[in-house]
Amino acid sequence: MERVEVGGVEVAYERVGSGPPLVLVHGAALDARSWRPQLAGLRDELTVVAWDEPGVGRSAAVPADFTLADFADALAGLVAHLGLGPAHVGGLSWGGTVVLQCYRRHPELFESLIMVDAYAGWKGSLPADEVRARVDGVRAMLAAPAEEFDPTLPGLFAQEPSASLVAEMTAMARDVLPGTLALELGLMAEADLSDVLPLVTVPTLLVWGELDARSPLRVAHEFASAIPHAELVVVPGAGHMSPLEEPELVNDAIRTFVRAQARGAPGRL
Question: SS3 of 187, please?
């Protein structure tokens, strides 16, 4: 992995391939390793960058008062430092919330927006009672002994994940600083970025698991209605972790979308 200091925080990232830049932002309790199928599958024609967000994996810890804007600015700092902007920027789940906040603050860095099983924050995408239930669940999870933490939360996968995938997710969760997990889930619970969606002026791809129980397909359709000219690709049989459950289908969707932007397809903004 390579490292760079952005906004006073050292950030680790993986960079592979060559071609148009694609920057990928992982979900909560994950790190860059969650994008391995995309790093391997898209490097033949894209420059693929996946970070360990601040406070996660091989990146440095963050202060307790780190905000969603700070995460977004760190992402912008990475893109700018690498000279990749404007880039295709994609986020999974919590990572999608970070990407939306980054777009709000730094739209000039975006060639396109790729939202994968994402949220406009929990408050921005889920009913209030569901947000309360998730906050209660997070508190119980953080209060439990570390060995009882289950990285494959109910509803995360549509099908039973393989033993190797569970082991990899457990390893990633182990490398997330407990304070960071509490911080990012707290920020997710309070975030409402639904007002950003109508302001998006770059081509947008929405990739959603057909059976996503965490960010239901209803959320995808709300995104598609709110974001001008957004394209929705539904991944059959996948849940909330579609890039890991159906990596080839997700890779094909991203590849097709990026190629269309490169050749100035009709509908490009």
Answer: helix
